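User: Predict the full complex structure for these chains.
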Amino acid sequence: MYGMMQPAIAAQGIGKGFRTGFWGPVKQVLRQVDLTVAPGAIFGVLGPNGAGKTTLISILATLLRPDVGQARVLGLDVVREAATLKERINLAASGAHFLWCMTVEDNLRFYGRLYGLGGRALQDKIEKLLDLFGLAEYRAVTFERLSTGLKQRLSLAKALVNDPELLFLDEPTSGLDQEMAHQIRKEILRLNREMGVTILLTTHNLREAESLCTEVAFLKSGQLISEGAIPELQRRLGLGDHLNLIFQDSPAPLDYGRLPGVLHHSVQDSRVDLVLDRVEERLPAILEAVYRTEKKLAQVKIKPVDLEEIYREITH
Amino acid sequence: MKLRTNWYKIWAFSVRNTLVNRRNVFAMLELLVWPLIGVLSVGLLTRFLSLEGETVSFILIGAVTMNTVQIAQLDLSYALLYSVWSKSLKHEFIAPVRLSHILMGAGLVGLVRGLLVFVVMGGLSVYLFDMDLGRPGLEGLSFFLLGLFLNAAIIGALVLALVLWFGQRAEAAAWAFSYLMLLLCGLYYPVSVLPQEFQVLAQLIPLTYFLDYFRHFYGFPLLSRHPLLYGFSQSVVYLIISYGLVSLTLKHAYQRGTLLRLSD
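Assistant: Here is the predicted structure of the two-chain assembly.
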Protein backbone atom coordinates (compact mmCIF):
# COMPACT_ATOMS: atom_id res chain seq x y z
CA MET A 1 0.00 0.00 0.00
CA TYR A 2 1.23 3.46 -0.90
CA GLY A 3 1.90 5.70 2.06
CA MET A 4 3.42 9.09 2.77
CA MET A 5 6.79 7.53 3.54
CA GLN A 6 7.01 5.84 0.14
CA PRO A 7 8.18 7.82 -2.86
CA ALA A 8 5.45 8.93 -5.26
CA ILE A 9 7.65 7.67 -8.09
CA ALA A 10 10.43 5.12 -7.84
CA ALA A 11 11.98 4.06 -11.14
CA GLN A 12 15.03 1.86 -11.55
CA GLY A 13 17.01 1.09 -14.67
CA ILE A 14 14.38 2.24 -17.14
CA GLY A 15 15.41 1.71 -20.74
CA LYS A 16 13.42 2.20 -23.92
CA GLY A 17 14.21 2.01 -27.60
CA PHE A 18 12.13 2.42 -30.73
CA ARG A 19 12.58 0.49 -33.94
CA THR A 20 12.56 2.46 -37.18
CA GLY A 21 10.02 0.72 -39.42
CA PHE A 22 9.63 -3.04 -39.13
CA TRP A 23 13.19 -4.17 -39.59
CA GLY A 24 15.17 -0.99 -39.02
CA PRO A 25 17.66 -0.49 -36.20
CA VAL A 26 16.50 0.24 -32.67
CA LYS A 27 17.15 3.79 -31.56
CA GLN A 28 17.77 3.88 -27.83
CA VAL A 29 15.80 6.75 -26.28
CA LEU A 30 16.23 6.04 -22.56
CA ARG A 31 19.19 4.33 -20.91
CA GLN A 32 19.21 3.04 -17.35
CA VAL A 33 17.19 5.87 -15.86
CA ASP A 34 16.71 5.87 -12.08
CA LEU A 35 14.33 8.39 -10.62
CA THR A 36 12.80 9.03 -7.20
CA VAL A 37 10.14 11.63 -6.57
CA ALA A 38 8.88 12.44 -3.09
CA PRO A 39 5.15 12.75 -2.40
CA GLY A 40 3.92 16.33 -2.61
CA ALA A 41 6.86 17.48 -4.75
CA ILE A 42 6.89 19.40 -7.99
CA PHE A 43 9.59 17.55 -9.80
CA GLY A 44 11.01 18.84 -13.07
CA VAL A 45 12.55 16.67 -15.76
CA LEU A 46 14.71 18.95 -17.85
CA GLY A 47 16.57 18.46 -21.05
CA PRO A 48 16.82 19.57 -24.65
CA ASN A 49 14.43 18.34 -27.34
CA GLY A 50 14.95 14.66 -28.03
CA ALA A 51 16.48 14.00 -24.60
CA GLY A 52 13.78 11.42 -23.79
CA LYS A 53 11.61 13.51 -21.45
CA THR A 54 8.29 12.61 -23.08
CA THR A 55 9.26 8.95 -23.32
CA LEU A 56 10.06 8.88 -19.61
CA ILE A 57 6.86 10.64 -18.59
CA SER A 58 4.84 8.34 -20.88
CA ILE A 59 6.30 5.23 -19.26
CA LEU A 60 5.50 6.56 -15.79
CA ALA A 61 1.99 7.53 -16.95
CA THR A 62 1.32 3.95 -18.20
CA LEU A 63 1.12 4.98 -21.86
CA LEU A 64 4.29 3.18 -22.85
CA ARG A 65 5.94 0.03 -21.61
CA PRO A 66 9.64 0.07 -20.75
CA ASP A 67 11.94 -2.45 -22.45
CA VAL A 68 13.92 -2.90 -19.25
CA GLY A 69 13.69 -1.67 -15.69
CA GLN A 70 10.90 -1.24 -13.22
CA ALA A 71 8.84 1.71 -12.14
CA ARG A 72 6.38 2.10 -9.32
CA VAL A 73 4.09 5.10 -9.21
CA LEU A 74 2.07 5.69 -6.02
CA GLY A 75 3.33 2.29 -4.95
CA LEU A 76 1.90 0.52 -8.04
CA ASP A 77 3.82 -1.16 -10.84
CA VAL A 78 3.31 0.86 -14.04
CA VAL A 79 2.95 -2.28 -16.18
CA ARG A 80 1.34 -4.95 -14.01
CA GLU A 81 -0.90 -2.64 -12.00
CA ALA A 82 -1.56 -0.05 -14.71
CA ALA A 83 -5.34 -0.43 -14.57
CA THR A 84 -5.49 0.50 -10.86
CA LEU A 85 -2.87 3.22 -11.25
CA LYS A 86 -4.76 4.92 -14.08
CA GLU A 87 -7.57 5.74 -11.61
CA ARG A 88 -5.17 7.86 -9.53
CA ILE A 89 -3.08 9.74 -12.08
CA ASN A 90 -3.71 12.07 -14.99
CA LEU A 91 -1.84 13.93 -17.70
CA ALA A 92 -1.89 17.29 -19.43
CA ALA A 93 0.38 17.83 -22.39
CA SER A 94 1.51 20.75 -24.48
CA GLY A 95 -0.51 21.51 -27.59
CA ALA A 96 -3.77 20.33 -26.05
CA HIS A 97 -5.74 18.11 -28.39
CA PHE A 98 -9.35 17.06 -27.97
CA LEU A 99 -12.17 16.18 -30.33
CA TRP A 100 -12.79 19.26 -32.46
CA CYS A 101 -16.59 19.23 -32.47
CA MET A 102 -17.08 18.69 -28.73
CA THR A 103 -17.63 21.70 -26.49
CA VAL A 104 -15.64 22.46 -23.35
CA GLU A 105 -18.44 20.94 -21.27
CA ASP A 106 -18.81 17.91 -23.57
CA ASN A 107 -15.10 17.20 -23.24
CA LEU A 108 -15.11 17.41 -19.44
CA ARG A 109 -18.21 15.20 -19.33
CA PHE A 110 -16.63 12.66 -21.69
CA TYR A 111 -13.43 12.38 -19.67
CA GLY A 112 -15.35 12.41 -16.39
CA ARG A 113 -17.33 9.40 -17.56
CA LEU A 114 -14.13 7.61 -18.55
CA TYR A 115 -13.19 7.81 -14.87
CA GLY A 116 -16.53 6.30 -13.86
CA LEU A 117 -18.26 9.54 -12.88
CA GLY A 118 -21.88 10.18 -13.68
CA GLY A 119 -25.05 11.90 -12.58
CA ARG A 120 -24.91 14.68 -9.97
CA ALA A 121 -21.30 13.94 -8.99
CA LEU A 122 -20.13 14.46 -12.57
CA GLN A 123 -22.14 17.65 -13.05
CA ASP A 124 -20.77 19.09 -9.78
CA LYS A 125 -17.25 18.21 -10.82
CA ILE A 126 -17.71 19.86 -14.23
CA GLU A 127 -19.06 23.07 -12.65
CA LYS A 128 -16.17 23.16 -10.20
CA LEU A 129 -13.56 22.72 -12.94
CA LEU A 130 -15.22 25.29 -15.19
CA ASP A 131 -15.06 27.80 -12.33
CA LEU A 132 -11.56 26.87 -11.27
CA PHE A 133 -10.10 27.43 -14.73
CA GLY A 134 -12.29 30.36 -15.78
CA LEU A 135 -13.95 28.29 -18.48
CA ALA A 136 -17.59 28.77 -17.47
CA GLU A 137 -18.32 31.35 -20.18
CA TYR A 138 -16.80 29.03 -22.83
CA ARG A 139 -18.66 25.91 -21.74
CA ALA A 140 -20.68 25.74 -24.99
CA VAL A 141 -17.78 26.60 -27.29
CA THR A 142 -16.44 23.77 -29.42
CA PHE A 143 -12.79 22.85 -28.97
CA GLU A 144 -11.78 23.96 -32.47
CA ARG A 145 -12.95 27.51 -31.68
CA LEU A 146 -10.97 27.93 -28.46
CA SER A 147 -7.79 30.02 -28.30
CA THR A 148 -4.51 28.23 -27.54
CA GLY A 149 -4.59 29.44 -23.94
CA LEU A 150 -8.15 28.24 -23.37
CA LYS A 151 -7.29 24.87 -24.91
CA GLN A 152 -4.43 24.54 -22.45
CA ARG A 153 -6.71 25.48 -19.56
CA LEU A 154 -9.19 22.85 -20.70
CA SER A 155 -6.35 20.35 -20.82
CA LEU A 156 -5.47 21.14 -17.19
CA ALA A 157 -9.13 21.02 -16.17
CA LYS A 158 -9.50 17.63 -17.83
CA ALA A 159 -6.39 16.43 -16.00
CA LEU A 160 -8.12 17.13 -12.66
CA VAL A 161 -11.40 15.44 -13.49
CA ASN A 162 -10.51 12.37 -11.40
CA ASP A 163 -8.85 14.30 -8.52
CA PRO A 164 -5.47 12.73 -9.31
CA GLU A 165 -2.90 12.20 -6.59
CA LEU A 166 -0.17 12.56 -9.17
CA LEU A 167 -0.24 14.75 -12.24
CA PHE A 168 2.04 14.47 -15.25
CA LEU A 169 2.55 17.71 -17.15
CA ASP A 170 4.40 17.40 -20.42
CA GLU A 171 5.71 20.85 -21.42
CA PRO A 172 2.63 22.50 -19.89
CA THR A 173 3.36 26.04 -21.10
CA SER A 174 5.00 25.26 -24.42
CA GLY A 175 3.66 27.52 -27.17
CA LEU A 176 1.82 29.86 -24.81
CA ASP A 177 2.41 33.61 -24.58
CA GLN A 178 4.11 35.01 -21.45
CA GLU A 179 0.88 36.05 -19.76
CA MET A 180 -0.84 32.72 -20.32
CA ALA A 181 2.28 30.77 -19.32
CA HIS A 182 2.36 32.78 -16.09
CA GLN A 183 -1.31 31.96 -15.41
CA ILE A 184 -0.73 28.26 -16.00
CA ARG A 185 2.30 28.26 -13.69
CA LYS A 186 0.22 29.87 -10.97
CA GLU A 187 -2.38 27.13 -11.43
CA ILE A 188 0.27 24.44 -11.16
CA LEU A 189 1.59 25.91 -7.92
CA ARG A 190 -1.94 26.19 -6.54
CA LEU A 191 -2.69 22.56 -7.40
CA ASN A 192 0.41 21.49 -5.56
CA ARG A 193 0.07 23.74 -2.52
CA GLU A 194 -3.67 23.79 -1.98
CA MET A 195 -4.68 20.39 -3.24
CA GLY A 196 -1.51 18.49 -2.38
CA VAL A 197 -1.10 17.02 -5.88
CA THR A 198 2.35 15.61 -6.62
CA ILE A 199 3.48 16.93 -10.00
CA LEU A 200 6.04 15.62 -12.44
CA LEU A 201 6.62 18.05 -15.25
CA THR A 202 8.88 18.04 -18.24
CA THR A 203 10.19 21.26 -19.65
CA HIS A 204 13.10 22.70 -21.53
CA ASN A 205 12.33 26.08 -20.01
CA LEU A 206 14.82 26.48 -17.19
CA ARG A 207 13.15 29.57 -15.75
CA GLU A 208 9.91 27.65 -15.51
CA ALA A 209 11.59 24.79 -13.67
CA GLU A 210 13.28 27.25 -11.36
CA SER A 211 10.04 28.97 -10.46
CA LEU A 212 8.04 25.76 -9.98
CA CYS A 213 10.17 22.79 -9.04
CA THR A 214 11.37 21.67 -5.67
CA GLU A 215 13.65 19.15 -7.36
CA VAL A 216 14.91 18.62 -10.87
CA ALA A 217 16.56 15.93 -12.95
CA PHE A 218 18.53 16.52 -16.12
CA LEU A 219 18.18 14.19 -19.06
CA LYS A 220 20.62 14.18 -21.92
CA SER A 221 20.56 11.69 -24.78
CA GLY A 222 18.32 9.38 -22.78
CA GLN A 223 20.49 9.37 -19.68
CA LEU A 224 19.76 10.97 -16.37
CA ILE A 225 22.89 12.93 -15.66
CA SER A 226 21.99 14.67 -12.44
CA GLU A 227 19.11 14.82 -9.99
CA GLY A 228 18.32 16.73 -6.84
CA ALA A 229 17.11 19.95 -5.24
CA ILE A 230 18.52 23.03 -6.97
CA PRO A 231 20.76 24.15 -4.02
CA GLU A 232 21.98 20.58 -3.64
CA LEU A 233 22.93 20.39 -7.32
CA GLN A 234 24.65 23.72 -6.98
CA ARG A 235 26.79 22.42 -4.14
CA ARG A 236 27.46 19.14 -5.88
CA LEU A 237 28.72 20.91 -8.97
CA GLY A 238 30.69 23.53 -7.08
CA LEU A 239 28.54 26.25 -8.54
CA GLY A 240 27.70 29.22 -6.39
CA ASP A 241 26.07 32.58 -6.12
CA HIS A 242 27.97 35.55 -7.50
CA LEU A 243 28.92 38.51 -5.29
CA ASN A 244 30.62 41.50 -6.95
CA LEU A 245 32.25 44.06 -4.65
CA ILE A 246 33.22 47.30 -6.39
CA PHE A 247 35.41 49.58 -4.28
CA GLN A 248 35.75 53.36 -4.55
CA ASP A 249 39.52 53.13 -5.11
CA SER A 250 41.58 49.96 -4.51
CA PRO A 251 40.07 46.71 -3.20
CA ALA A 252 40.18 45.81 0.48
CA PRO A 253 43.42 43.96 1.33
CA LEU A 254 41.88 40.61 2.29
CA ASP A 255 42.74 36.99 1.59
CA TYR A 256 39.44 36.44 -0.25
CA GLY A 257 40.05 32.75 -0.78
CA ARG A 258 40.05 32.19 2.98
CA LEU A 259 36.77 33.98 3.64
CA PRO A 260 33.98 31.60 4.73
CA GLY A 261 31.94 30.08 1.88
CA VAL A 262 34.11 31.41 -0.94
CA LEU A 263 34.40 28.86 -3.76
CA HIS A 264 36.29 31.01 -6.28
CA HIS A 265 37.50 34.60 -6.39
CA SER A 266 39.17 37.06 -8.73
CA VAL A 267 40.46 40.61 -8.23
CA GLN A 268 40.68 43.11 -11.05
CA ASP A 269 41.40 46.84 -10.45
CA SER A 270 38.85 48.02 -7.91
CA ARG A 271 36.55 45.05 -8.45
CA VAL A 272 36.43 41.75 -6.57
CA ASP A 273 34.29 38.88 -7.89
CA LEU A 274 33.43 36.16 -5.40
CA VAL A 275 31.56 32.90 -5.95
CA LEU A 276 29.90 31.82 -2.70
CA ASP A 277 28.12 28.65 -1.66
CA ARG A 278 25.18 30.55 -0.10
CA VAL A 279 25.27 34.29 -0.56
CA GLU A 280 22.46 35.10 1.85
CA GLU A 281 24.31 33.38 4.72
CA ARG A 282 27.81 34.63 3.90
CA LEU A 283 27.15 38.24 2.99
CA PRO A 284 27.10 39.74 6.54
CA ALA A 285 30.48 38.20 7.48
CA ILE A 286 32.09 39.35 4.21
CA LEU A 287 30.78 42.90 4.55
CA GLU A 288 32.00 42.94 8.17
CA ALA A 289 35.51 41.92 7.03
CA VAL A 290 35.51 44.62 4.36
CA TYR A 291 34.25 47.19 6.87
CA ARG A 292 37.17 46.42 9.21
CA THR A 293 39.69 47.31 6.45
CA GLU A 294 38.09 50.79 6.23
CA LYS A 295 37.93 50.53 2.44
CA LYS A 296 34.84 52.13 0.97
CA LEU A 297 32.50 50.17 -1.24
CA ALA A 298 30.96 51.89 -4.26
CA GLN A 299 28.66 49.06 -5.22
CA VAL A 300 27.63 45.53 -4.19
CA LYS A 301 26.00 43.24 -6.73
CA ILE A 302 24.45 39.84 -5.98
CA LYS A 303 23.51 37.31 -8.61
CA PRO A 304 22.23 33.97 -7.27
CA VAL A 305 23.20 30.90 -9.27
CA ASP A 306 20.49 29.96 -11.76
CA LEU A 307 19.39 26.72 -13.27
CA GLU A 308 20.79 27.70 -16.62
CA GLU A 309 24.25 27.77 -15.14
CA ILE A 310 23.71 24.34 -13.61
CA TYR A 311 22.34 23.09 -16.91
CA ARG A 312 25.36 24.44 -18.83
CA GLU A 313 27.73 22.87 -16.35
CA ILE A 314 26.01 19.51 -16.52
CA THR A 315 25.47 19.25 -20.22
CA HIS A 316 28.88 20.44 -21.35
CA MET B 1 -21.19 0.30 -8.21
CA LYS B 2 -18.70 -1.37 -10.55
CA LEU B 3 -21.52 -2.06 -13.00
CA ARG B 4 -22.54 1.58 -12.90
CA THR B 5 -19.00 2.95 -13.45
CA ASN B 6 -18.55 0.50 -16.34
CA TRP B 7 -21.80 1.71 -17.82
CA TYR B 8 -20.62 5.36 -17.58
CA LYS B 9 -17.45 4.45 -19.47
CA ILE B 10 -19.41 2.67 -22.21
CA TRP B 11 -21.89 5.53 -22.36
CA ALA B 12 -19.03 8.05 -22.72
CA PHE B 13 -18.09 6.51 -26.08
CA SER B 14 -21.72 6.23 -27.16
CA VAL B 15 -22.36 9.90 -26.44
CA ARG B 16 -19.12 10.95 -28.12
CA ASN B 17 -19.94 9.07 -31.33
CA THR B 18 -23.49 10.45 -31.26
CA LEU B 19 -22.19 14.02 -30.89
CA VAL B 20 -19.75 13.60 -33.76
CA ASN B 21 -22.51 12.16 -35.95
CA ARG B 22 -24.99 14.85 -34.96
CA ARG B 23 -22.58 17.70 -35.64
CA ASN B 24 -21.31 16.32 -38.93
CA VAL B 25 -23.49 16.93 -41.95
CA PHE B 26 -21.83 14.07 -43.84
CA ALA B 27 -22.77 11.62 -41.12
CA MET B 28 -26.39 12.69 -41.62
CA LEU B 29 -25.96 12.06 -45.36
CA GLU B 30 -24.81 8.54 -44.55
CA LEU B 31 -28.06 7.92 -42.75
CA LEU B 32 -30.51 9.38 -45.23
CA VAL B 33 -29.11 10.29 -48.64
CA TRP B 34 -26.87 7.32 -49.43
CA PRO B 35 -29.51 4.75 -48.44
CA LEU B 36 -32.05 6.58 -50.59
CA ILE B 37 -29.68 6.64 -53.55
CA GLY B 38 -28.84 2.99 -52.89
CA VAL B 39 -32.46 1.82 -52.97
CA LEU B 40 -33.40 4.01 -55.91
CA SER B 41 -30.46 3.06 -58.12
CA VAL B 42 -30.74 -0.68 -57.44
CA GLY B 43 -34.54 -0.65 -57.53
CA LEU B 44 -34.65 1.23 -60.83
CA LEU B 45 -32.07 -1.11 -62.30
CA THR B 46 -34.37 -4.05 -61.54
CA ARG B 47 -37.18 -2.21 -63.40
CA PHE B 48 -34.93 -1.53 -66.38
CA LEU B 49 -34.03 -5.21 -66.48
CA SER B 50 -37.75 -6.10 -66.13
CA LEU B 51 -37.05 -8.42 -63.20
CA GLU B 52 -39.89 -10.25 -61.45
CA GLY B 53 -41.01 -9.82 -57.82
CA GLU B 54 -38.83 -12.43 -56.04
CA THR B 55 -35.70 -11.50 -57.98
CA VAL B 56 -36.29 -7.84 -57.16
CA SER B 57 -36.49 -8.77 -53.47
CA PHE B 58 -33.29 -10.81 -53.81
CA ILE B 59 -31.41 -7.79 -55.13
CA LEU B 60 -32.99 -5.25 -52.78
CA ILE B 61 -32.09 -7.45 -49.80
CA GLY B 62 -28.50 -7.14 -51.03
CA ALA B 63 -28.71 -3.34 -51.22
CA VAL B 64 -30.28 -3.05 -47.74
CA THR B 65 -27.70 -5.45 -46.29
CA MET B 66 -24.76 -3.58 -47.79
CA ASN B 67 -25.78 -0.20 -46.40
CA THR B 68 -26.80 -1.56 -43.00
CA VAL B 69 -23.52 -3.40 -42.46
CA GLN B 70 -21.48 -0.47 -43.79
CA ILE B 71 -23.06 2.09 -41.49
CA ALA B 72 -23.10 -0.16 -38.44
CA GLN B 73 -19.41 -1.03 -38.79
CA LEU B 74 -18.33 2.56 -39.40
CA ASP B 75 -19.05 3.68 -35.85
CA LEU B 76 -16.92 0.90 -34.49
CA SER B 77 -14.15 1.50 -37.01
CA TYR B 78 -14.18 5.22 -36.27
CA ALA B 79 -14.13 4.71 -32.48
CA LEU B 80 -10.37 5.04 -32.49
CA LEU B 81 -10.06 7.04 -35.71
CA TYR B 82 -11.91 9.97 -34.08
CA SER B 83 -9.25 9.95 -31.38
CA VAL B 84 -6.46 9.60 -33.94
CA TRP B 85 -7.78 12.48 -36.03
CA SER B 86 -8.16 14.69 -32.97
CA LYS B 87 -4.81 13.49 -31.55
CA SER B 88 -6.46 12.71 -28.22
CA LEU B 89 -5.68 9.00 -28.12
CA LYS B 90 -3.30 9.24 -25.17
CA HIS B 91 -5.87 11.06 -23.04
CA GLU B 92 -8.30 8.19 -23.53
CA PHE B 93 -5.76 5.50 -22.81
CA ILE B 94 -4.39 7.18 -19.71
CA ALA B 95 -7.91 6.85 -18.33
CA PRO B 96 -8.96 3.52 -16.80
CA VAL B 97 -10.88 2.33 -19.87
CA ARG B 98 -10.83 -1.12 -21.40
CA LEU B 99 -11.25 -2.13 -25.02
CA SER B 100 -14.64 -3.55 -24.19
CA HIS B 101 -15.84 -0.09 -23.10
CA ILE B 102 -14.80 1.41 -26.44
CA LEU B 103 -16.20 -1.45 -28.50
CA MET B 104 -19.52 -1.58 -26.68
CA GLY B 105 -19.98 2.19 -26.54
CA ALA B 106 -19.23 2.76 -30.21
CA GLY B 107 -20.99 -0.46 -31.19
CA LEU B 108 -24.19 0.71 -29.52
CA VAL B 109 -24.28 3.80 -31.76
CA GLY B 110 -23.45 1.64 -34.78
CA LEU B 111 -26.35 -0.62 -33.91
CA VAL B 112 -28.82 2.27 -33.66
CA ARG B 113 -27.56 3.89 -36.88
CA GLY B 114 -27.55 0.54 -38.69
CA LEU B 115 -31.10 -0.11 -37.54
CA LEU B 116 -32.15 3.32 -38.79
CA VAL B 117 -30.62 2.64 -42.21
CA PHE B 118 -32.34 -0.74 -42.33
CA VAL B 119 -35.70 0.85 -41.50
CA VAL B 120 -35.24 3.71 -44.03
CA MET B 121 -34.08 1.42 -46.83
CA GLY B 122 -36.55 -1.33 -46.00
CA GLY B 123 -39.37 1.21 -45.90
CA LEU B 124 -38.37 2.67 -49.26
CA SER B 125 -38.10 -0.82 -50.78
CA VAL B 126 -41.62 -1.61 -49.60
CA TYR B 127 -43.03 1.75 -50.65
CA LEU B 128 -41.34 2.18 -54.03
CA PHE B 129 -40.74 -1.37 -55.23
CA ASP B 130 -43.43 -3.40 -53.47
CA MET B 131 -40.98 -5.57 -51.63
CA ASP B 132 -42.62 -7.72 -48.94
CA LEU B 133 -40.19 -7.08 -46.11
CA GLY B 134 -42.51 -8.62 -43.52
CA ARG B 135 -42.56 -12.06 -45.14
CA PRO B 136 -39.80 -13.60 -42.94
CA GLY B 137 -41.79 -12.57 -39.85
CA LEU B 138 -40.41 -10.99 -36.69
CA GLU B 139 -38.25 -13.97 -35.87
CA GLY B 140 -36.71 -14.12 -39.35
CA LEU B 141 -36.08 -10.38 -39.37
CA SER B 142 -34.55 -10.43 -35.89
CA PHE B 143 -32.12 -13.26 -36.67
CA PHE B 144 -31.15 -11.57 -39.93
CA LEU B 145 -30.54 -8.21 -38.26
CA LEU B 146 -28.56 -9.83 -35.45
CA GLY B 147 -26.44 -11.53 -38.10
CA LEU B 148 -25.82 -8.25 -39.90
CA PHE B 149 -24.74 -6.51 -36.69
CA LEU B 150 -22.43 -9.34 -35.71
CA ASN B 151 -20.76 -9.06 -39.12
CA ALA B 152 -20.49 -5.29 -38.71
CA ALA B 153 -18.88 -5.83 -35.29
CA ILE B 154 -16.32 -8.24 -36.77
CA ILE B 155 -15.36 -5.78 -39.52
CA GLY B 156 -15.24 -2.87 -37.06
CA ALA B 157 -13.00 -4.76 -34.65
CA LEU B 158 -10.63 -5.78 -37.45
CA VAL B 159 -10.38 -2.17 -38.59
CA LEU B 160 -9.60 -1.12 -35.00
CA ALA B 161 -6.76 -3.62 -34.94
CA LEU B 162 -5.43 -2.17 -38.21
CA VAL B 163 -5.68 1.39 -36.85
CA LEU B 164 -3.69 0.41 -33.77
CA TRP B 165 -1.07 -1.25 -35.92
CA PHE B 166 -0.79 1.08 -38.89
CA GLY B 167 -2.35 4.30 -37.58
CA GLN B 168 -4.22 6.68 -39.80
CA ARG B 169 -3.16 4.81 -42.93
CA ALA B 170 -5.72 2.15 -41.98
CA GLU B 171 -8.57 4.58 -42.57
CA ALA B 172 -9.22 3.22 -46.05
CA ALA B 173 -9.57 -0.25 -44.56
CA ALA B 174 -12.77 0.84 -42.83
CA TRP B 175 -14.45 0.79 -46.22
CA ALA B 176 -12.35 -1.74 -48.08
CA PHE B 177 -12.89 -4.55 -45.56
CA SER B 178 -16.65 -4.51 -45.79
CA TYR B 179 -16.66 -4.20 -49.58
CA LEU B 180 -14.42 -7.24 -49.88
CA MET B 181 -16.66 -9.22 -47.58
CA LEU B 182 -19.78 -8.07 -49.39
CA LEU B 183 -18.28 -8.98 -52.77
CA LEU B 184 -17.69 -12.56 -51.68
CA CYS B 185 -20.87 -13.23 -49.70
CA GLY B 186 -23.21 -12.97 -52.72
CA LEU B 187 -24.77 -9.60 -52.20
CA TYR B 188 -26.47 -9.17 -55.58
CA TYR B 189 -26.06 -12.72 -56.87
CA PRO B 190 -26.16 -16.26 -55.53
CA VAL B 191 -22.79 -17.49 -54.30
CA SER B 192 -23.09 -20.35 -56.83
CA VAL B 193 -22.20 -17.93 -59.68
CA LEU B 194 -18.79 -17.23 -58.13
CA PRO B 195 -15.74 -19.20 -59.34
CA GLN B 196 -15.24 -22.39 -57.31
CA GLU B 197 -12.34 -21.12 -55.18
CA PHE B 198 -14.26 -17.97 -54.29
CA GLN B 199 -17.26 -20.09 -53.29
CA VAL B 200 -15.03 -21.76 -50.71
CA LEU B 201 -14.05 -18.33 -49.39
CA ALA B 202 -17.72 -17.28 -49.31
CA GLN B 203 -18.45 -20.23 -47.02
CA LEU B 204 -16.02 -18.77 -44.52
CA ILE B 205 -18.02 -15.55 -44.28
CA PRO B 206 -20.95 -15.62 -41.84
CA LEU B 207 -22.87 -13.01 -43.82
CA THR B 208 -23.22 -15.56 -46.66
CA TYR B 209 -25.33 -17.74 -44.36
CA PHE B 210 -27.47 -14.89 -43.05
CA LEU B 211 -28.27 -13.76 -46.61
CA ASP B 212 -29.00 -17.37 -47.52
CA TYR B 213 -31.33 -17.67 -44.51
CA PHE B 214 -33.19 -14.44 -45.20
CA ARG B 215 -33.61 -15.03 -48.93
CA HIS B 216 -35.08 -18.48 -48.46
CA PHE B 217 -38.24 -16.77 -47.19
CA TYR B 218 -38.56 -15.34 -50.70
CA GLY B 219 -38.46 -18.73 -52.36
CA PHE B 220 -34.75 -19.15 -53.00
CA PRO B 221 -33.33 -22.54 -52.10
CA LEU B 222 -31.09 -22.80 -49.05
CA LEU B 223 -27.46 -23.39 -49.96
CA SER B 224 -26.67 -24.89 -46.57
CA ARG B 225 -28.89 -27.00 -44.31
CA HIS B 226 -28.40 -24.96 -41.14
CA PRO B 227 -27.56 -21.40 -42.19
CA LEU B 228 -28.23 -19.85 -38.77
CA LEU B 229 -26.10 -22.43 -36.98
CA TYR B 230 -23.18 -21.86 -39.36
CA GLY B 231 -23.68 -18.09 -39.43
CA PHE B 232 -23.80 -17.62 -35.66
CA SER B 233 -21.05 -20.14 -34.92
CA GLN B 234 -18.70 -18.47 -37.39
CA SER B 235 -19.65 -15.04 -36.08
CA VAL B 236 -18.84 -15.97 -32.50
CA VAL B 237 -15.49 -17.48 -33.52
CA TYR B 238 -14.57 -14.45 -35.63
CA LEU B 239 -15.66 -12.06 -32.89
CA ILE B 240 -13.41 -13.81 -30.40
CA ILE B 241 -10.53 -13.78 -32.90
CA SER B 242 -11.00 -10.13 -33.83
CA TYR B 243 -11.28 -9.09 -30.16
CA GLY B 244 -8.09 -11.01 -29.50
CA LEU B 245 -6.42 -9.24 -32.41
CA VAL B 246 -7.43 -5.80 -31.15
CA SER B 247 -6.18 -6.68 -27.65
CA LEU B 248 -2.90 -7.89 -29.10
CA THR B 249 -2.38 -4.81 -31.24
CA LEU B 250 -3.21 -2.60 -28.25
CA LYS B 251 -0.57 -4.42 -26.24
CA HIS B 252 1.89 -3.84 -29.09
CA ALA B 253 0.82 -0.19 -29.27
CA TYR B 254 1.82 0.22 -25.61
CA GLN B 255 5.14 -1.41 -26.41
CA ARG B 256 5.92 0.36 -29.69
CA GLY B 257 4.74 3.81 -28.66
CA THR B 258 1.94 3.87 -31.24
CA LEU B 259 -0.45 5.56 -28.81
CA LEU B 260 1.99 8.44 -28.44
CA ARG B 261 2.84 8.65 -32.12
CA LEU B 262 -0.84 8.82 -33.00
CA SER B 263 -1.33 11.61 -30.46
CA ASP B 264 1.40 13.88 -31.90
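The longest helix of chain A spans residues 178-195.
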